[in-house]
Write a structure and sequence with these properties.
By secondary structure, the chain is an all-alpha fold. The chain is 71% helix and 0% strand. Helix 3 packs antiparallel against helix 4, helix 3 packs antiparallel against helix 9 and helix 9 packs parallel to helix 12. The two termini are 34 Å apart. Bound molecules: fe (iii) ion (FE) and manganese (II) ion (MN).
Length: 328
């Protein structure tokens, strides 16, 4: 079983029981990169010069402010909440790989903060200061409360549901919805040759996150199969409601980060994009789609090809090349 049980020895990875977990591990290794590979000279010149409007600068600041702390939040949840209960050794091997990638992402925002000369307190304080950011973080942290309780054990269906709520909260909501308005904003700037270094860092992060999300979805799917009485209709409805609440928070974030149209991207389009992404996520959880909204940013599909997440195994051999190069 993928969750702790008497038959699992977490130290004995061979023979492998879940081949997909090993595939994700190898995909992660093939995607290896570090932020210092990306030159920031042009970004620094734009940031210190007059290449950006105030609205464009706000987009950059909000997304650096959100991601700089969200990456650490995800890493901490992985290590402190999830790792303890997912005892299958090949899944743990992937969790360690993912934790390393989150450290790379954390490092990316240190690198951006240093390069652009931000006051650390200013950037890293945004998650306390800006309600639309604070509410997203609080939303996913709340879902972890029960399993971080010292008394928590995985005995009953109710306990497994608490763990599933955390997994959906961090993999599907945080990495799969709360990151995506920001991805679209920063890639949108990059398409217009604004802050291309940061844009490229976001592309690398997005590539990593699409693998994290795909692993998380398979983890949820396997736990459901192995604990068939856990995912009731009521629980499915609860998860769908969770996703809908997350959509509202992400739309609010997008509206406040980008209140007016910038480079052909406006608050309404971001709201639509979040709905489009959320429908894909609901589908990945075998739940009915809620919104039926078209993708307002078709260029994001070229960049991310959200299908890659579901068709991951068919595509990864050609699309996930070795080394740090970004080759969609
Ligand atoms: Fe990350
Ligand atoms: Mn991640």
């Amino acid at each position: 079983m993928i969750l702790e049980d008497d038959a699992t020895d977490p130290n004995k990875i061979l023979p492998v029981e879940y081949d997909w977990a090993r595939e994700y591990y190898r995909a992660g290794v093939n995607n290896n990169w570090v932020p210092e590979e990306i030159p920031m000279g042009e970004d620094v010149a734009q940031w210190n010069g007059d290449a950006l409007t105030d609205a464009e600068r706000q987009l950059v600041e909000w997304n650096l402010g959100f991601f700089s702390t969200a990456e650490s939040l995800t890493a901490n949840n992985l290590v402190l909440a999830i790792y303890e209960y997912v005892t299958n050794p090949e899944c743990r091997q992937y969790l360690l790989r993912q934790a390393y990638e989150e450290a790379i992402h954390t490092d990316t925002f240190i690198y951006c903060c240093d390069s652009l000369g931000f006051e650390p307190e200013y950037l890293y304080g945004m998650y306390d200061r800006i309600p639309a950011i604070a509410e997203k973080d609080a939303f996913v942290v709340d879902l972890t409360q029960s399993i971080l309780d010292d008394e928590f054990t995985l005995d009953t269906d109710r306990d497994v549901r608490s763990l599933l709520r955390d997994l959906v909260g961090f993999y599907v909501v945080m990495e799969g919805i709360f990151f995506y308005a920001g991805f679209a904003m920063m890639l949108g700037l990059k398409r217009r040759n604004k802050m291309v270094g940061i844009g490229q860092q976001f592309e690398y992060i997005m590539r990593d996150e699409s693998v994290h999300l795909a692993f998380g979805v398979d983890l949820v799917r396997t736990i459901r199969q192995e604990h068939p009485t856990v995912w009731t209709d009521d629980f499915g409805a609860e998860i769908a409601a969770l996703v809908e609440d997350a959509v509202e928070l992400e739309q609010q974030y997008a509206r406040e980060a980008c209140p007016d149209e910038i480079l052909g991207m406006g608050p309404e389009q971001f709201a639509e994009y979040v709905e489009y992404v959320a429908d894909r996520r609901l589908g990945q959880l075998d739940l009915p789609e809620t919104y039926g909204t078209d993708n307002p940013f078709p260029w994001m599909s070229e960049a991310t090809d959200l299908n890659k997440e579901t068709n991951f195994f068919e595509k990864q051999v050609t699309e996930y090349q070795s080394g740090g190069s970004l080759d969609w």
